[in-house]
Amino acid sequence: MAERSLAVVILAAGQGTRMKSALPKVLHRIGGRSLIAHVLDTAAGLSPNSVIAVVRHERERVSEAILEHAPDTVIVDQDEVPGTGRAVEQAIAALPDDFDGSVVVLSGDVPLIDVPTLERLVRGHLDGGRAMTMLSAIFSNPTGLGRILRDADGAVTGIVEEKDATESQRRVTEINGGIYVFARRALQAALAEIDTNNAQGEKYLTDAAARILASGGGVEAVATDDPWLIAGVNDRAQLAEAGRELNARIVREHQRNGVSIQDPATTWIEADVSIGADTEILPGTFLQGATTIAGGASIGPDTTLVDCEVGEGARIRRSEATLAVFGDRVDVGPFAYIRPGTELGVAGKIGAFVETKNAKVGDGSKIPHLSYIGDATIGTGSNVGAGTIVANYDGVNKHQAVIGDAVRIGSKNVLISPVTIEDGTYTAAGTVVRKNVPSGSLALNVAPQRNIEGWVTEHRPGTSTAEAALRAQDVDTPGAANGGN
Fold first, then answer.
1. Is 78 within the bounds of a domain?
2. CA dihedral 194, 199, 202, 203 (to 10 degrees)
3. Which DSSP string do the residues of 436-449 spell out, in sequence order?
4. Structural domain ending residue among the three candidates 201, 230, 259
5. Residue 369 known to be catalytic
6. In CATH, what number is assigned to the domain containing residue 127?
7. Residue of 254, 369, 399, 459 with catalytic role
8. How far apart are the first and last CA of the chain?
């Protein structure tokens, strides 16, 4: 749509009191992005000449969020005059004087409007040579919403807000969606004539329709059959509803692209997630941030991945991972906790009740169960025994442990960092490794086992343990004749 001039105005000045939140309404999030970020992305999809956001409440926070997401956005401050009409009036004043194209007006709290719908609206507006085109919808219960007014021939005659509507007008079921396309000059002229003489004492943008019609300009309302496209978010309940609907749409899109999602109702996938074909997503899975999953993987059940990269054929179940990279054909979980900086190589394994952090684990290496591996590098084809801990923190600084290729770490080891265990070595069960282990060696702590005969019966007399010991030694125990204690 780059062949014609287009500007997009996004209204983001409202306080959003019904959210009852210290966070500005447009910064609340669904699908991994703020409400206004969704609208900014949609605006960018139109390839406009400029995008203008009108702000007022919590101006600094809202502006910062907008510019972080879309740095080329022009920020305009709404003045003391209330109303959407005044907000748009100030926005178009920021356009170059010679801009003579179309102006699309969006709301920062209507996150589900999409690019195809707006493209059709703009194209119909231009093809029809109209001065104003708006998106509408038919609601069985339009309470609280502005109504589209038409004459007996079906031509639009205006828009009325519910507080200003007559009883017969309130029975109209075609509602104003709050999404518009205007010819810039017609809009500018109409806004100059609008006042605040209404029930709310505001300068309504909707009054532009009557002004444009009075001047001979064409006005049309185009009804959508998808009411979610114009659904605004005004409170926490509506925020949750919009989030569920967005998630359902994201899930369906992945399904259509060849992803098997067993239970859409318990699967949450944020907008920036990428999933390859033939991947299976099992119930209770949350895929967040910029997570990317290659084809043929199996994720879940009960798994959360945040900003992770997952290779082909990977299997991750009942685990949580953040900022981690998983190679092809890895096996992770159940109940693994993968913290930022973890990299698991091809065909590697991080098993049950394993926690990793800043751990580089080479191809084919395994940490099967009950271990903590932090600030460590593990080579290829190595195995870490159950219950191993990398003691990486000395109370002041973190230190690195290096484990080479084809190393066998025995069960219940403690590796005191900094330490290097070279290629092709073994460590015995129960070893505390304090010194570097040279290639081909067996590391063990020489501490002969000592058994103190008779300690239990002497120091724990009368206990079930002592009685078991006496029975094993074939010694009569007190009370044996009557069944004991």
1. yes
2. -20
3. -B-TT-EE------
4. 230
5. yes
6. 3.90.550.10
7. 369
8. 90
The answer, yes or no, to whether residue 352 has pLDDT greater than 90, is: yes
Residue 119's Cβ-side half-sphere holds a number of Cα atoms within 13 Å equal to: 11
Alpha-carbon gap, residue 123 to 135, rounded angstroms? 13
In a domain, 142, yes or no: yes
Of the candidates 204, 230, 256, which is a domain's last residue? 230
pLDDT at 35: 98
Q: What is the pLDDT of residues 170-182, one digit of tens each?
A: 999 999 999 999 9
Supply the range of the domain harboring residue 466: 453-485
In a domain, 77, yes or no: yes
What is the token pair recorded at 339?
């913290």
pLDDT tens by residue, 370-421:
999 999 999 999 999 999 999 999 999 999 999 999 999 999 999 999 999 9
Question: Which range, of 159-168, 322-331, 348-357, 436-445, averages the lowest pLDDT?
Answer: 159-168
Question: CA-CA distance, 380 to 93, in Å (whole number)?
Answer: 64
* 359 domain residue, yes or no: no
**Tokens at residue 420, please?**
């290097």
Number of domains observed in the structure of the chain: 2
Single pTM value for the model: 0.89
> Phi, psi at residue 147, to the nearest 5°?
-110, 145
